Sequence to fold (332 residues):
Amino acid sequence: MSEFSKMLTAAIGAGILLGATATQAQQPSLKMTLFGQPSVNNDSIWMALEKGYYQQEGLDVTYRLFPSGTTAFQSFQTGQGDIVMTGDLPSVQYFFRVKGDYRTIAVVERDAKGYVAVARKEITKPQDLLGKTVATRVGSTGSWFISEYLTKNGVDPSKVAVKNLDTQVLPAALCGGEIAAFFIWQPIGSRTLEICPDKSHYLTDATGYIQGYLVAGARPEWLASPQGKDTAIRWLRATMKGRDVAEKDFAAVAAYAKAKLDLSEKATREQWDTNIRPLALDKVYYDDFCSLSRWAQAEKMTEQKIDFNQLTWPDGLKAINPKLVDAPPPPC
Fold:
């Protein structure tokens, strides 16, 4: 097992705290628990932790890592955590599964190039996957990516077996020949090419297929409480400051990724270069999630349309800057 895999597995298994703020002297800090993932699309959060912006906002943040948003939701559903970072499909599925007991409070990051299909060297085109086994974290954005990639290239998805694997085991599964390809977010792809460059290559990124998201969400009951609302607004404000650093200071992001996750500078750079960090609820978000919703309904994954007046909580962003929230479309 690589050093990266050992550190990542240990971090996830132990639910390590990657950053906890000190108590402000003048008043007790507001305690909150944040669920995240070991992916560079969390770099706005990393920099807010590293630079002390959560402390400055009077927050005492416990940061727990999970291999995917889908896995994080399993703990979130038991009542743990205050704010949870997840992908697009997991957030929508969770919203319907818990009968609306969830709200998206902001889009933290989105991109297409940060989602990749990594394949064995003998797999060079979509048709080569017929009869083969591919993998993703089923229920994550990777599921949507696989379906769109195969369908748009004229390959019947029913002729390709999809295996459910957590992110940290995907490199070993591909390098060992257990699967022909996987569809997931970075840095899993770049790490695989570092581990077995003679056996793996990039088949595609998600450009032209999907745009993957990292969204922040919370429970409506918590957001409706004075302390929860206050905490969420402070968290958003501090994360925006972290975003401003993450966008400009690659060296700081790379140093954090190396120290906390043993990610190489190259692996960090590949994802950092593609990150788009809106910290908003904008028209692009609505359009992309309507596309996701139409796909999910066609796949019988849900029978309900997305009503953004129910799915989202715009109050926090509006309190900071009303221009960060666009008017939602009709249910789609």
